[in-house]
Amino acid sequence: RDLVVTGALFSILINPFFFLALDRRLRRSGNAAEPRPAPSALPPWPGASDGHAVVIGYGRVGRAIVQDLAARGLDVIVVDDRDDIVEAEGPRTTTVRGNGASAELLARCDLARAGRLFVAIPNSFEAGQIVQQARALNPRLGIIARAHSDPEVAYLQKCGANATIMGEREIAAGMIARAFAA
């Protein structure tokens, strides 16, 4: 049992480094797929408007983001690939079932007119693909991504994220702020 736990922890720790090395090797060899905008024959999803927000991932993190954006009165498109996804709350919120790394789906989110993209999925390799495609669709788009380690932060920023939030770092900052609050 201890061997299984040790193996799992080792895998969790080594994966970000593996994907970063793989990405570097593919880029050097010229075999890396360059992100390119995918023209969509289908119209944008309802909810796409000038300055709308797109949230990829509707788990605990994505749900909290969507609730805050809805409270601010923003139009929001929520993307999640789970079969059991619940419709996001709010009259100005559109829920789309699908993989956020799909070029067709991203094109239908009308990122060219979007104001912000929140990549709230825990898989940094897939998040990097989303960030690269989104950056190709809209070079001025504000992209905020979720990360779990320093190598993931570096990888997502290299992919084009404007900001990368690492949960553990934010928790530590919140604990310090509470400990020394007047």
Structural category is: alpha/beta
**What integer value in Å does the Rg equal?**
18 Å
| Net shape | globular
Would you identify the regions where 5 or more consecutive residues have pLDDT less than 50?
none
Biggest sheet: strands side by side, in what order? 3-2-1-4-5-6
Largest sheet: 6 strands, parallel
Please state the average pLDDT score. Answer: 83
Residues in helices, as a percent range: 40-55%
**Distance linking N and C termini:** 46 Å
Helix/strand order: HEHEEHEHEHEH
Number of helices: 6
Fraction of residues in β-strands: 15-25%
Q: Which descriptors would you attach to this protein?
A:
182 residues, alpha/beta, 46% helix, globular
Would you mind describing this structure in some detail?
With 182 residues, the protein is of the alpha/beta class. The chain is built from 6 helices and 6 strands. It has helices at 2-29, 60-71, 103-108, 124-137, 150-159, 167-179, and strands at residues 53-56, 76-80, 93-97, 116-119, 142-147, 163-166. It has a 6-stranded parallel beta sheet with strand order 3-2-1-4-5-6, sandwiched between helices. Strand 1 (53-56), helix 2 and strand 2 (76-80) form a beta-alpha-beta unit. Helix 4 (124-137) runs parallel beside helix 5.
